[in-house]
Amino acid sequence: MNRYLSFILLSFIFGGPLEHSAFAAQQENTNWCIIGGGPAGIIMVSMLRDLGIPDSEIFWVDANQFNVGRLSSYPTVPGNVKTGYLVNFFKSLKTFKEVSAPALNKLLHSNEYDLSLECPLKVITDPLQEVTDHLLTKVNAIHGKVKSLDFVDDNWHVTINDTKITAHYAVLATGSHPRQLNYGISEIPFDLALDKDALASQVKPHDVVAVVGSAHSAILILKFLSEIRVGRIINLYTEPIKYTVDMGGWFLHQEEGLKGITARWAQEVLEKKLPSNLIRVINNAETRKRWLANCTKIIYACGFERNNLPIINGKKTDGSYDETTGTIGQRLFGFGIAFPEKVTDKAGNTEHRVGLLSFLSYAQRVVPEWITTKDFVESCYNFDSLFVIDML
User: Fold this and answer.
1) Cα dihedral 279, 283, 289, 294 in deg (nearest 10)
2) pLDDT (tens digit per residue) in 138-149
3) For residue 391, what pLDDT is reported?
4) Phi, psi at 97, each rounded to 5°
């Protein structure tokens, strides 16, 4: 029986959530252990299945109830990719095509969405949850926090709660969280700030709100604040605003540049008619001393940083990895926003690729290479079955 279904069944038998006891002292053997249930984990498990890895050889682990990770926390946030590209994304893997569920069917088969416009993240996360639910009926899965990974006897030994998994390959798709600073001002949590209604409940007309950052999230929060009754907005930034620009065959600032609603607002408002209560200043010690003295609230929208990693071979790791292949160690790989691919565009700009489309095209390139690192390749692994989609 599928491990996830066994877990649910045992929880009903014993009258409640089973937590660790169902797997006490269990030893599981598998070929692939995927750690993380967010978008990167979903893509990775689906990719392995598409390549012909049997379900019985995949063990999927998540500490957060397999709920699409942090992305599910932002249902109302406008996306920065056109809906049409999301349709291509969900049509790109055979595993995705196995799923027939309301949100995914609505995205793929209804005329409700304008494919040329961006959509709220809920339009992405709901189908991803449906894909997750499907995968949980196929592969082995367990909810729990990975404590350690140890490479012993040519295998990875993964300790999760009271379960030990022995796997030939391990993939860390462990995600990230908002970067934190400490400027000594009452903070509005980043997650709340990305919801306009929640943000409005956190500020008063007399508040002076500082926003730290100049990328997509920071500009979106500036837009929200400009539409809410608030005393003054101080934007502290270290980099000038960048836009993604179609250069004909390639994109300038494809990853770091503004797109969609934030790009349009920045071009039409920030650059042409700055709101009278909004001030933008370079973030350095001098400007912070001058402008933060009167601020009553602050929002840190200055990027994300990797979640804490499990102990690897008895030591804390600094997260070093090969930024072109995802390799961390022998048959240990990193994937997703915590371990993004580094690329250089035709203008010489280096960026890290993040987002569903970037993760998918990266996985389509590197996962077949990961598989061939084994001493042998099973004939059932089909490397020619993948449909590669454009980034934008």
Assistant:
1) 30
2) 999 999 999 999
3) 30
4) -70, -15
Which backbone phi and psi does 70 adopt, to 5 degrees? Answer: -65, -25
Residues contacting 230, CB < 8 A, separation 6+: 203, 204, 205, 207, 208, 209, 277
Q: Do domains 3-177+306-371 and 180-302 have the same CATH topology?
A: yes
Question: Structure tokens of 199?
Answer: 């943000």
Q: How many CB atoms lie within 10 A of CB 245?
A: 14
Locate 380 and state its tokens.
Answer: 């059932």
Dihedral of alpha carbons 323, 324, 330, 333, sign: positive
CB-based burial of residue 341 (10 Å sphere; 0-12 exposed, 13-18 middle, 19+ buried)? Answer: buried
Cα–Cα distance measured from residue 135 to residue 122, given in angstroms and rounded to the nearest whole number: 20
pLDDT band with cut points at 50, 70 and 90 for residue 13? very low
Residue spans of the domains in the chain: they are 3-177+306-371, 180-302
Name the pTM for this structure. 0.86
* 345 contacts 245 by C-beta, under 8 angstroms: no
Helices (H) and strands (E) in the chain, counts: 12, 21
Nearest by Cα to 243 from 267, 270, 218, 220: 267
Which one of 3.50.50.60, 1.10.3300.10, 3.30.429.10, 3.40.50.11540 gives the CATH number of domain 3-177+306-371? 3.50.50.60
Burial of 296 (0-12, 13-18, 19+ CB in 10 A): middle
Whole-angstrom distance, CA of residue 194 vs CA of residue 199: 7
- CATH architecture of structural domain 180-302: 3-Layer(bba) Sandwich (3.50)
